[in-house]
Amino acid sequence: MTDCKHRQIEFQDLNDRNIIADFSGGHISSDGGVALIGQLDRSYGYTKRFAECFKDHRDDRYTEHGLLELLRQRTYGIANGYEDLNDHDLLRHDPLLSAVCGKEDVTGKDRQRRQDQGKSLAGKSTLNRLELTKADVGKEERYKKIAADDAAIEEFFIDEWIRSLPKNAKSVTLDLDATDDLIHGNQEGRFFHGYYMNYCYLPLYIFCDDWPIVAKLRQSNIDACEGALDCIKKIVARLRKSFPSIRVILRADSGFCRHETMNWCEETPGIYYVFGIARNPVLERYVAKSLEKARLKSEADDGKPARVFKEFKYAAGTWDGCKRRVIAKAEWTQGAANPRFIITNLKAVTYSGQDLYENFYCARGNMENRIKEQQLDLFADRTSTAFMRSNQIRLWFSTLAYLLINQLRKVALKGTELAKATCGTIRLRLLKIGTLVKVSVRRIYLSMSSAFPLQDIFFLAAHRLRLC
Question: Where in the chain is the domain with CATH 3.90.350.10?
Answer without folding.
Answer: 151-377
